[in-house]
């Protein structure tokens, strides 16, 4: 059965669980591949990968998704052999496993879209089935000079991968030790328990296993914990972490017995060893549960909570207007005003709490980029290293879902277009491996700034201009405008990764039009290119400045406004030939002054020429300050931003609409995008840019 109709009620939970397991499996598989490339072992990653596939198979069998069961089964079988062989996987096994994970992911997406899972590809199943013998052949053949002290290490209670990890560490010259911790009421009072000890010891080494020991222990206790670890720390340091005596440290190294025939191979796991009762018990050993302490909630429920909050925000605006009307009529409203203020504080707290629920870590959002780069390495033949510097940055899930396709396009372009082939890089004096670095951090203005930097060849302005049949641009902004033209590509033929000329157009539409953010670029020939994206952390509830222009009310997000200034018409300078644009002085510097009334075409150009409002909002447009003159500032309030979904009414520079509490729709403007769309590159962009060809 491939369409689990009778299990429909379990499907959302199944999909969410498998999605998490796939993300974990992809991380572990990439770690295994990196270790294989270095000739090292990653027994823990192999074991975690095996566990993830084991669980996926079990969950899929429960909801009767046979294609995923088949794929997971053969992957699990080979990984089980690898785990029993100490976490040793041949390099040739990585690609089929990657394809297997991708095939499972595709079928999970099909189920999520309400479609039946397509059958598993027969040739892929055959390749996965053939992995088992390859893994057996990769098992170690030579005995080591140093082995584990079986008694001290409780060898009979170790999984093969754990034993291999300890013995491999010894063979590589590391210290393998057993640290016995004896808990007591006195140590607990000092904050020393097995959990804090694990955290402390983990800072000084790699904990392979923790075993509880019952019976008589040092110090007259009846319980102790043995921590088996690889470490470079001195014994005194480890003992200090666990509170000193009666804790003990002992080495796990022992001399290997002399083999009758040194050339004979070490024992190799065979198929008959698969599924032994002991191993299945190991799978059930208590460990920290995946996602422990977390509650999984459907996004639709969070959206529903946000909608109710939005309704409360609009109602509060109406209530505020009603109280203001009563006050103006002379009614006693002091108590009402006090309640209204308290209500405002409670709404802000509720908004903050719900937004925190919707925030996702950028590290989680970007966790699939390494797999994308891995695929690009294979398809392009380029050596690429991806570095992620995301810290603790978070953003609204709705923003993250919209933003991810833009980041995928930028990373794909960086690898496919920007980075050179290894031999080309070497001849240019660069390391053969190209670098793509993605970093992000939250700004105080409620925005997230993301930078994507590569050390490739830089954008060829002349080639781009030739492809666009346009003059060579004089600034980076002009070059970015050309790159974002729909259908523009410098490639003669489309490849599997790019060349259709849609990538940058999509990136700008997502970042600027859909999210109301900003996209900028800096590029230097032979050095590399940096894209900077600034997007709001959330797009539903925002603090806005409300103002009046040409008799209508408008709103603009506070985070996009740098400053509010008064405009003295007598001090506005209007250069000749500036087409009605003016200049105002701001702390000793001239800032372009744009009449918003004219931009919105609310009056005839002849009437508007030379006229401007008495207030102005200063907004960064392509990195340069631009003042937008308005008639009157009405205040600041929290608004519910409703995007204009209908493409027929979507206008550049209009982020959406809102209800200010008067029951009338009010446009929410994106002044930077509006100015760029209407004024053109002549305003505020003359100084910007940073490319050199």
Automatic annotation (TrEMBL):
Chain positions found as Phosphohistidine: 54
CheW-like domain span: 541-680
Domain HPt per the UniProt entry, residue ranges: 3-115
Superkingdom per UniProt: Bacteria
The entry's keywords: Kinase, Phosphoprotein, Transferase
EC number: 2.7.13.3
Domain Histidine kinase: 300-539
EC class name: transferase
Pfam families named in the record: CheW (PF01584), H-kinase_dim (PF02895), HATPase_c (PF02518), Hpt (PF01627)
Reaction it catalyzes: ATP + protein L-histidine = ADP + protein N-phospho-L-histidine
Protein name per UniProt: histidine kinase
